[in-house]
Amino acid sequence: SLNGGSMTGGGNVGMGSSIYKLNKANAQFSGVQNTSIGNSIFNLTNGDLTGMYNIGMGNILYTMRSGDMSANRNIAMGNDIYILNKTTGAVFSGVQNTSIGEKIFNLTNGDLIGGSNIGMGHSQYLLGSGNMAGSINIAIGRESYYVVNGDITNTARNNIALGSSIYRLNNFSTSTFSGENNIGMGNTLYKLDSGNMAGGRNIEIGR
Question: Distance between CA atoms of 62 and 80, rounded to whole angstroms?
Answer without folding.
Answer: 8
